UniProtKB/TrEMBL annotation:
This is Gustatory receptor. Keywords: Membrane, Transmembrane, Transmembrane helix. The chain crosses the membrane at residues 51-71, 83-103, 161-182, 194-215, 222-241, 275-297, 309-331. The keyword Membrane applies.
Length: 407
């Protein structure tokens, strides 16, 4: 049902990673004959990819964390502009979240497991289609497929094109974290920059922009597999919900599909926990949204002295965080809601049969666990839409607290 779109996104993700390093470093190859992704285990391309991952893990991430600590604790007030400080903090959070993803993919088992889970999910969808060929599926599922397809295409268009462009623009401006770090070190050591301000910005901007493009391409592939798991679960749970105006699935077939979807949730939840940052999306988005909203309000309060670049960056960051939370929470919660509707309709139809009634009582709502810690309520009832309201409440409350403490 969704496997055709999933295959297109996988092919796109493989090619984006290859293009981000000019075809010199990557962990996947695309076999045009079999139309499948091939995980690399060795070779010069994969070794180059591993070297880049090691650079991010052991050099780039510690450097950005150290710079953020210096700005927060040791840097004199007014030495750096609010825009450069905000960009540095945001970059440090994003790069730190990328570390477990890079660590997972730089191991030979990482790309192999990624492709295996993705391919298994697509094959399972084809198996479902073969089972349901002679029956009418819920028409709401087809609408959901179209909606999810448009949302994923829009999201990854931003991720593949707009985000790298933003990285490139910021990398060649005076608020670039790399340039501000070099300038701060030279000022502390009383050294004069040989290349001058413009030359230093240009020289430092090249590796910064290229590194940002590689980071976004690889991170996008890691997010893709979790997104596919959520969408697959959502559309197929909708598809098997009985309706009165169609030829419904046999009880055993519907139960088999639902049980197989349970395996999908386990596989994709495990992949999300392997990448770590995917399961920390709520806390990360709250921190980024709070910082962006606080900086935007304080800048607007300055009137004519406000920084237009900072305000634009804050608005863009808030929209991105909002978009991610909508997708991560809304569709996961809708999967749980669809599971409950499936139980309700099946009990109405098959509740008089003792065996079928007991079989339905053994089932729990399906959901892809994208949270670091799950509660007993989530285990029994699935993800609820209250999670999204919690995100909005925490962002607004934290922003108000910061504004009250702001002098």
């Amino acid at each position: 049902m969704f496997h055709d779109d999933a295959l297109k996104h996988l092919r796109r993700g493989v090619h984006v990673i290859q293009r981000s390093c000019f075809g010199l470093a990557y962990c996947f190859e695309w076999d045009a004959k079999t139309n499948r992704a091939i995980p690399l285990r060795n070779g010069s391309k994969y070794r180059s990819f591993q070297i880049l991952c090691y650079l991010f893990v052991f050099f780039v991430a510690p450097a950005f964390l150290a710079r953020s600590y210096h700005l927060a604790v040791m840097s004199p007030p007014g030495q750096e502009s609010p825009a450069s400080i905000g960009v540095t903090y945001a970059a440090a959070i994003i790069i730190t979240g990328f570390v477990p993803m890079a660590w997972n993919l730089k191991r030979a088992s990482g790309p192999r497991k990624y492709v295996s889970v993705y391919q298994a999910t697509m094959e399972m969808e084809k198996h479902f289609e073969a089972l349901c060929r002679n029956y009418d599926l819920n028409p709401a599922a087809l609408t959901a497929v179209q909606t999810c397809s448009k949302m994923l295409s829009s999201y990854f268009y931003q991720f593949d094109y707009m985000a790298p462009l933003s990285f490139a623009i910021i990398s060649f401006t005076p608020i670039s974290p790399v340039y501000t770090t070099i300038h701060s070190i030279s000022k502390a050591l009383n050294l004069k920059l040989i290349t001058g301000k413009i030359g230093t910005i240009l020289i430092s901007g090249v590796p910064a922009s290229l590194g940002g493009i590689f980071l976004m391409a690889t991170m996008g592939a890691c997010i893709l597999i979790s997104g596919y798991g959520v969408v697959c679960l959502y559309v197929w749970t909708l598809a098997i919900i009985p309706t009165s105006n169609r030829v419904e699935l046999p009880f055993e077939t519907a139960l088999h599909v639902y049980t197989c979807l349970r395996h999908v949730t386990i596989l994709h939840s495990e992949m999300a926990h392997d990448f770590v940052a995917v399961c920390l999306h709520h806390g990360t988005m709250v921190v980024l949204s709070t910082g962006a909203l606080f900086n935007m309000i304080t800048e607007l309060a300055k009137g004519a002295e406000m920084s237009a670049i900072l305000i634009f960056a804050c608005v863009a960051l808030i929209l991105v965080c909002l978009w991610i939370e909508i997708f991560a929470i809304y569709f996961t919660a809708m999967s749980s809601t669809a599971s409950k509707e499936f139980f309700r309709q099946m009990r109405l139809i098959h509740g008089e049969n003792k065996y079928k009634r007991k079989a339905l009582r053994c089932l729990l709502p399906n959901y892809v666990n994208l949270e670091a810690v799950s509660s007993a309520d989530t285990f029994l009832n699935g993800v609820q839409m209250e999670y999204f309201s919690n995100y909005l409440i925490r962002v607004t409350d934290n922003t108000i607290d910061l504004l009250l403490a702001y002098k």
